[in-house]
Amino acid sequence: MAKSVNDAFAGISDQNNETETDNKRFSYPFLVCENQEQKQKLEEILFFVASCKTGKKLIDDAIKHNTVISLDPAIRAYGSYDEVKNILKINEKSGLHQQIATMAHELRHAQQFQNGILMDAYLDHPKCYIQNQAVIEADASACATAVCFQLAVKGYQEPLEALRQKDPHIVNPFQNQVALNKKIDEKAYAAAFKGWFSDYSTRDAYDSLYIKMVRQRFKNASREDEEKKFERVVSVNDIVKSVCSCDGKTYLSEKQTADFFSTQDACSVSFERFNAIYANCCSKFNFDWTKPQDEVMKEKLGLVPRPHSGYMPAKVVPEPMPIPFVDLKQAEAADKIAAAKVKRQINPLLAASLRQYKQK
After folding, report:
1. Does residue 148 contact residue 100 with C-beta atoms inside 8 Å?
2. Parallel, antiparallel, or unpaired: how do β-strands 249-250 and 245-246 relate?
3. What is the distance between the alpha carbons of residues 178 and 185, in angstroms, rounded to a whole number?
4. Which of 68, 286, 324, 343 has its CA at a distance of 20 to 30 angstroms from the CA of residue 159?
């Protein structure tokens, strides 16, 4: 049983285009498969995800926390992650390139919930839940883009292009920022993160899911839950600090988070879901029926309506962009040289300080 990605990957070539298909497998200890074909498929997907730095970290964390992974031919979405059962599912009917991007996205969700974030559609204040749900989805999309981009730099560009066809509003801002800074950094993640919010269709789908989850939770709510519903406040900044990281560093500062999530658009829900939230919360928050609905919702819940996804601006056209192979390699080499120079400069100073300390 592999203890880490490095152990499991021992002896397997990192050059994806030169590796035989039969070798494109990864021994993951917590696969649940109905047959050998499913097992080989998942191992192939995991092989590619683990072939880059960010993907290796995602899989290491999944192994550490015993995350179960399976293929599901019946799932309607590209993939899903159940944080209660710690089970990750990938749509078996998707193509390999899309499955790689989806695996990275769902592994990021697994990693997010390993950090102990709290989310409950019934107990959480509506605005908190809606914004925090958006945070974890936008962050998972940014992370999946990073994985696919790193694979593209290695020469395997198909997952990135598959993701671009689906989410150009996320991939292109990420890639533009990488081209500008010559590296994958917190600015690239932040650009992809903010790009997620520009697609009203996706946001409307999660607003709809929120209403569904509230109704499902209501069926199993205890008397205590009923008394505390919609009261818990988990600040969006706390969620951002918990999940939005790039190389171990939070890619949105507290001020950036506050500025972004205080905008009217970031506080909006689709018109249809706006009405449903009003109906769910009217008795809990003692809404004044004599005032306009929009005014009451903004005053009591801090939420405003936005047009349905059908009224959103023109959809972003997925335009393939050149991968800056040479620039990225040169920037990476320059960083290593600079770090080595600093190390050479610091070591003599430390040695001199140590000699002076011993002399005392």
Report:
1. yes
2. antiparallel
3. 7
4. 68
Angle between helix 236-243 and helix 254-261 axes, rounded to 10 deg: 130
Does the domain spanning 1-114 belong to CATH 3.40.50? no
Contact between 160 and 148 (Cβ < 8 Å): yes
List the structure tokens of 188: 């690239």
pLDDT for the residue numbered 271: 87
Non-local CB neighbours of 38 within 8 Å, separated by 6+ positions: 70, 71, 92
pLDDT computed for residue 11 by the predictor: 37
* Residue 354 identity: L
Residue ranges of domains in the chain: 1-114, 115-323, 329-360
Say how far apart CA 48 and CA 100 lie, in whole Å.
7
pLDDT digits (tens, 9 = 90+) for 179-216: 888 889 999 999 999 999 999 989 999 999 999 999 99
Contact yes or no for 86/67 (Cβ under 8 A): yes
Asked whether 301 and 126 are in contact (CB, 8 A), the reply is yes
Assign 274 to helix, strand or coil: helix
SS3 call for 269: strand
DSSP state of 289: T
User: 3-class SS at 224?
Assistant: helix
Joined together, the tokens standing for residue 1 give 């049983």
By residue count, the chain amounts to 360
The C-alpha atoms of residue 52 and residue 59 are separated, in whole angstroms, by 11
CB contact set of 64 (below 8 Å; sequence gap of 6+): none
What angle separates helix 158-166 from helix 126-153, to the nearest 10 degrees? Answer: 150
CA distance 72 to 89: 6
CA dist 208 and 204 (Å) reads: 6
- CA-to-CA dists, residue 183 to 49, 131, 176, angstroms: 19, 29, 11
Burial letters for 325-336: b for 16+ Cβ neighbours within 10 Å, e otherwise?
A: eeebeebeeeee
